[in-house]
Design brief:
Beta-Lactamase, 2 domains
């Protein structure tokens, strides 16, 4: 039986339609694979960011505990020294008292160690006061030293250069004087330094208002909290900054992600030291962990994209 023109046309169009359907289906599969790869990479990036923040929190929490313990140990040692110093009589030879303070200062790494009494008398572990960050008269004007004359144990700082501790010295059931121990900037900088994060971690100690107490070797990123976020207009980051300021005022710790003025993504961790209103601030690059995996993720996208292109050209050729 002879086929009509219409039946021949239908037989010819069916394979074309079938091939078009196959090509469309395979194209959809390839696009789906590519989309799933992008979605998987995005989830991987989120997980890497979360792991980085968790690791930063663990490291800085341990570092803040170490700093707090070191400060409390120095205070305990100073209290014991004050108890020993109280055994000296008021008429004791000044050279003898200075010698005792000098030996103790070397052991406890105070630079210097100074005793003041209510009458204005003072004796130091250093006969040369040029190494003292403040004069005896200046020390007596400090609120923390005055508080120690009332029996309080204090930790304070001098202009971002030194931390000092002041404890009362008791004689005859009353406070006869105050013993002040000064820790140099270099000693405190070694305390807050860390080799974690391949040396790309930068820390300093500030108070809840952002005033620098102990700076890192490079002070620039920590001059003021406002300088860290200068020019930041992202609404989410502004909200996070406000949350951080509330947390610091309420002595809570946290982590903040932001973009520096250099356009570099950074993580800022703030950890309460539970000493006065002091906080440990730590900055690391946000991609310090993900930078390696990101390279392989990008290579995977290139490979997948090239594969899709080759298969697409093949399908259209067919």
């Amino acid at each position: 039986m002879k086929k009509t023109k219409d039946s021949i046309s239908d037989d010819y169009e069916k394979p074309i339609f079938r091939r078009g359907w196959y090509i469309g289906f395979l194209s959809l599969v390839l696009v789906s694979v590519f989309a799933l790869s992008i979605l998987n990479a995005a989830k991987l990036q989120i997980e890497l960011d979360r792991s980085t923040q968790d690791y930063l929190t663990d490291v800085t929490s341990q570092l803040s505990r170490d700093i707090r313990d070191a400060i409390n140990n120095r205070i305990t040692s100073l209290v014991m020294t004050a108890d020993s110093f109280s055994q000296f009589t008021q008429n004791q030879d000044t050279d003898t008292m200075s010698g005792f303070l000098n030996r103790t200062a070397q052991i406890l790494e105070f630079n210097p160690l100074i005793f003041f009494n209510r009458e204005g008398f003072s004796v130091s572990s250093h006969t040369d006061n040029s190494e003292t960050p403040a004069s005896p008269e200046d020390f007596l004007k400090l609120p923390s030293v005055r508080a120690s004359f009332q029996g309080s144990i204090q930790a304070s700082y001098i202009g971002g250069k030194s931390i000092f501790y002041s404890v009362p010295v008791y004689r005859d059931s009353g406070v006869d004087g105050v013993l002040v121990g000064v820790r140099s900037k270099e000693n405190m900088q070694s305390l807050i330094s860390s080799k974690s994060f391949s040396g790309q971690m930068l820390s300093c100690i500030v108070d809840s208002q952002g005033q620098v107490i102990i700076s890192p070797t490079d002070l620039k990123p920590f001059l003021q909290l406002e300088d860290i976020f200068k020019g930041e207009e992202n609404e989410k980051v502004i909200t996070d900054i406000q949350k951080m300021q509330r947390d610091m005022n309420e002595n809570r710790s946290g982590v903040l992600k932001f973009t520096a003025v250099t356009k570099e993504e950074l993580l800022l961790s703030y950890n309460a030291l539970n000493i006065n209103d002091w906080f440990l601030l730590t900055i690391i690059p946000a991609d310090i962990i993900s930078s390696g995996p990101n390279q392989y993720i990008l290579q995977s996208f290139v490979i997948i994209g090239a594969t899709i292109l080759i298969f697409s050209l093949f399908l259209f050729a067919v």
